């Protein structure tokens, strides 16, 4: 008998005692004189038919209707979406039976036991274990509720990844599959997607399965069930920690577009925009650059928030147009020109600091 039923019977019994206190006092003396001995064979087993017969309410001091009425007062109002405490009392092939204090034991299907793949229920649950469960639906026709652990883990996983995104954290996750669009990983039990454009240029997509990659969050949208990550951005951030504006680096041309060329500089790509190739006008980058060309470029901007590195060869030209007429000259004098560029930036900064403010003029 559960706690609610015990409490109900206790109340009814107390009421009856008040009504019949004098009768009980008279019966007490005679009751002590009765022989209370019994044989073990008189006790019905838990499986015997006599243990399942209706209670004799006629001799209980209250009616069955009164019992049912009071029992209803203590029944919990379980609703879908609620979290309840429950105790596992049976593990079955298709799920687990959970005691949550309701009239009928609740049931948790095996597919709701975890957000992660498990071999069996006993990988997650043990008999007599008490924990929190999520109510998935209203009672069925048998008065039984359906429960879930997976829904709780799912909600908490989204809370966790939102917090990680807010902190701009770098995480590591194993690639478990690839497709035409990119690669698939799991983060806090949730399935995440890495677009092909956000995988390092040095990684062959089809060989990624089983590799642990550093990743940054691009999109976290629980409503649309979208979790998008970037391997490239994580690498760029790591690389950026060792780079600085005005630095000259050696790279290789990995791709050419109408708007510029992508240069691989140590595993990450930087953009050499068409406007930063030369002081002279250029119709298309294809007229100046070829894929796999090795060249020196100068870093002119580092955008860690968007994972972008902006490059320039224009700033390295000894004379305007050298990238078109004598690119080898640009290569050989790159460090010298970069030093002049840094000095120019330094002087510009000093000039800005020396500009008097309105408050200084007033003084």
Task: List its salient traits.
disordered N terminus, OB fold (Dihydrolipoamide Acetyltransferase, E2P), 9 helices, alpha+beta, five-stranded antiparallel β-sheet, ribosomal protein, disordered C terminus, single chain
Offer a quick outline of the entry.
The protein is of the alpha+beta class and 363 residues long. The chain is 28% helix and 27% strand.
Describe the largest sheet: 5 strands, antiparallel
CATH architecture of the domain at 243-351: Beta Barrel
Q: What's the mean pLDDT score?
A: 78
Strand order of the largest sheet: 3-2-1-4-5
Count of runs of 4 or more consecutive helical residues: 9
Helical residue percent band: 25-40%
Protein name: 30S ribosomal protein S1-like protein A
Biased composition (Basic and acidic residues): 11-22
Domain S1 motif: 81-150, 168-232, 246-314
Biased composition (Polar residues): 1-10
């Amino acid at each position: 008998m559960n706690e609610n039923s015990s409490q109900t019977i206790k109340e009814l019994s107390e009421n009856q005692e008040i009504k019949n206190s004098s009768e009980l006092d008279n019966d007490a003396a005679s009751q002590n004189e009765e022989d209370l001995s019994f044989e073990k064979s008189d006790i019905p087993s838990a499986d015997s038919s006599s243990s399942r017969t209706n209670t004799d309410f006629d001799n209980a001091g209250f009616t069955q209707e009164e019992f049912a009425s009071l029992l209803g007062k203590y029944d919990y109002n379980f609703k879908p979406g609620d979290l309840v405490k429950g105790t596992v009392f049976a593990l079955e092939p298709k799920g687990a039976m959970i005691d949550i204090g309701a009239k009928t034991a609740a049931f948790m299907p095996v597919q709701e036991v975890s957000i992660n793949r498990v071999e069996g229920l006993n990988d997650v649950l043990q008999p007599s274990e008490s924990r929190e469960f999520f109510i998935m639906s209203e009672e069925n026709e048998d008065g039984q509720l359906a429960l879930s652990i997976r829904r709780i883990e799912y909600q908490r996983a989204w809370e966790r990844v939102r917090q990680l995104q807010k902190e701009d954290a770098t995480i590591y996750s194993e690639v478990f599959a690839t497709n035409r669009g990119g690669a698939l990983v799991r983060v806090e039990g949730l399935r995440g997607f890495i677009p092909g454009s956000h995988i390092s240029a040095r990684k062959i997509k089809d060989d990624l399965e089983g590799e642990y990659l550093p990743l940054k969050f691009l999109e976290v949208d629980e409503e649309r069930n979208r979790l998008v990550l970037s391997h490239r951005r994580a690498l760029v951030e790591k690389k950026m920690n060792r780079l600085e504006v005005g630095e000259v680096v050696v790279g290789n041309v990995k791709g050419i577009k109408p708007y510029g060329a992508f240069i691989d500089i140590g595993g990450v790509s930087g953009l050499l925009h068409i406007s930063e190739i030369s002081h002279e006008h250029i119709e298309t980058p294809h007229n100046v650059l070829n894929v796999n060309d090795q060249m020196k470029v100068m870093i002119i901007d580092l955008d860690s928030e968007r994972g972008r590195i902006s490059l320039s060869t224009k700033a390295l030209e000894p004379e305007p147009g050298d990238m078109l007429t004598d690119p080898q000259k640009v290569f050989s004098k790159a460090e010298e020109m970069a030093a002049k560029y840094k000095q120019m930036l330094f002087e510009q900064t000093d000039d800005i600091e020396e500009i008097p403010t309105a408050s200084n003029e007033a003084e």
